[in-house]
Amino acid sequence: MSTPVQRRRASINDVARLAEVSVGTVSNVLNRPDRVSPTTRERVVAAIAELSFVPNGSARQLRAGTITTVGAIVLDIANPFFTDVARGIEDRLTQDDYTLMLANSEEDPEREQRYLRLFEEHGVQGVMVVPSDERIDHLLALRARGVNVVLLDRSSPLDDLSSVAVDDVSGGELAARHLLEQGHTRIAFLNGPHAIRQCVERHTGVVRALEAAGLDPAEALVEITVPSLNADGGEAGTRELLASADHPSAIFCVNDLTALGALRTLRHEGVRVPDDVAVVGYDDVTFAAELGTPLTSVRQPTHALGFRAADLLLAAAAGAPAEQVLFQPELVVRASSTTP
Amino acid sequence: MSTPVQRRRASINDVARLAEVSVGTVSNVLNRPDRVSPTTRERVVAAIAELSFVPNGSARQLRAGTITTVGAIVLDIANPFFTDVARGIEDRLTQDDYTLMLANSEEDPEREQRYLRLFEEHGVQGVMVVPSDERIDHLLALRARGVNVVLLDRSSPLDDLSSVAVDDVSGGELAARHLLEQGHTRIAFLNGPHAIRQCVERHTGVVRALEAAGLDPAEALVEITVPSLNADGGEAGTRELLASADHPSAIFCVNDLTALGALRTLRHEGVRVPDDVAVVGYDDVTFAAELGTPLTSVRQPTHALGFRAADLLLAAAAGAPAEQVLFQPELVVRASSTTP
DNA sequence: ATGAAAGCGCTAACAT
DNA sequence: ATGTTAGCGCTTTCAT
């Protein structure tokens, strides 16, 4: 009943033979139809349909050398923050008819390398990467080999390497200062591994806020490293925190997924938010405002982040010089951190 | 300070020349190192490093004919349901050292076609697709051209086309029956366009539950088509609903993102949930339990869905016959639909 | 307007 | 163990 699977993909040669023209002519109707007389064009088109011919992208690309595809690697594809960024990227790429290959490193440098390699082997125009750890030499090497690189959500240490990031020091400071203003004198920080730059910088911001308030970070700050930057990580971190008798009265979570896990755990343990413990998240994802206790969070311009990154990449491909873009975050105060 | 961008990628020829061997030998150290004597191998490896040679994937693939990459196309990459499915896919693919190219159709058949074409041109091993509308001939044609196809989250009408889906009729029925059991006699259904099969089937399930309860769907069911299957769509649908004076006392939302928008709007409008209006969602995403009013939702085995789909695809590539897998959903009752 | 042919980078026979 | 070479499918001169 259904069409049998074909043994071999039809090639441009098969089309040429069937249409009784040369391969050059077939190539022309594919790429410059106006160079071909209407009658032969018709014959070729018919042959293409007849054979269900689909040009081989590898061959075309091998010939052309480059393609209109770019790659992006994010730390966690299940995190709304990154998917919103991806949407921003796509929206910009679409304008120039580029396509996006999205990959998920899961914060694993090896996976990152693997996808980078895959992208490079396939000759992508460039890549946008949220680095999995501190090292970026492999990205510099990649760029030296002719692949455009834009650092995503991480500012570039080099003038000639493009980056689009949000000021994470400022974000951490915003969150901590807010908690201090609410009267808290000790703060727990459920943070990710310091291999991830964003985590280091948010930590720096927290320390800065503490010091500005005349507090000693060694005493006023309890940093807990969560096993993963999601709800389960937040749960684990919160359990660890609650195990200590004199835990701080405020928790700053490195992202909203982590905060979600924290809120869940606090609820299970009968700890009231914000009465017993205040919570602040990061990213201001869609559901932050709708949670049982609406979540105070540091908002980032996610869509713009991706859009601008794609913009820089396309510009670089056109020969524009590198650029470092730094957006500013914004604190959105809700019930999870304020006593009415 | 930083390495200058290279003008041309080094090829296997350059390596051969520098190492003073033939291209065949270079190819051998790349693919069958044991066939090469240690000393020459060393020379070649050095040359590769010296030139930062990265093999051209297009050329290799052109030669090989096929690759260990598969494509997946989902309706909305910002929806946790689909990203969880994607994780399931990745987890299965990793076992066989395959890689995933993920694309986002945004429910747009044209975008779907475009990505399908891109995948096919690049010779992917197969594709997993959540179809954007009712038509699947293009997928059958694709398969006839030798690309393995697995329908994702949509059951196959054909014996020899693989699919992995969840019983959406049953899911719709589960949700509606529950609301009826709670005493509601009229139900609003914030649904997506009927071009999307899942929406049709959930609707069928709702109708079935209504009829089983002796109600006339024409009177007991108010279906509203949301402009998009996310929070904004849910908001728009809910506003439309509230505009009518005698709206139903229960809302069933086609997914949790839509439900999120509904809850948000109800709250803004001062409508109490579940006292004034009960709400049921679909997907049971991570945050469903943590919302202001914990959300009753129809849970689907997301990870298994993706994992199994990838499994079928890999099996098909190895010559296994097609298979249709149908999972059963499960209702998770929470506060948004029950009066204490 | 169309055809012939070179060549993109690589792999896999086949020779040596 | 290593070299030589054909050819994967396509685009692009260069002829005609």
What do these coordinates show?
The structure is a homodimer of 340-residue chains. Chain A is of the alpha/beta class and 340 residues long. Chain A has 3 domains: 12-56, 434 Repressor (Amino-terminal Domain) (Orthogonal Bundle), CATH 1.10.260; 68-166 and 302-327, Rossmann fold (3-Layer(aba) Sandwich); 168-300, Rossmann fold (3-Layer(aba) Sandwich), CATH 3.40.50.2300. Helices cover 45% and strands 17% of the residues of chain A. Chain A is built from 13 helices and 12 strands. In chain A, the strands form 2 sheets. Chain A has a 6-stranded parallel beta sheet, sandwiched between helices. In chain A, strands 7-6-8-9-10-12 form a 6-stranded mixed beta sheet, with helices on both faces. In chain A, β8, α12 and β9 (278-283) form a beta-alpha-beta unit. In chain A, α8 (168-181) runs parallel beside α9 (197-212). The radius of gyration of chain A is 26 Å and the shape is elongated. The model of chain A is unreliable at 1-5 (pLDDT under 50). The interface between A and B is large, with 64 and 64 residues. The structure holds a DNA duplex (16 and 16 nucleotides).
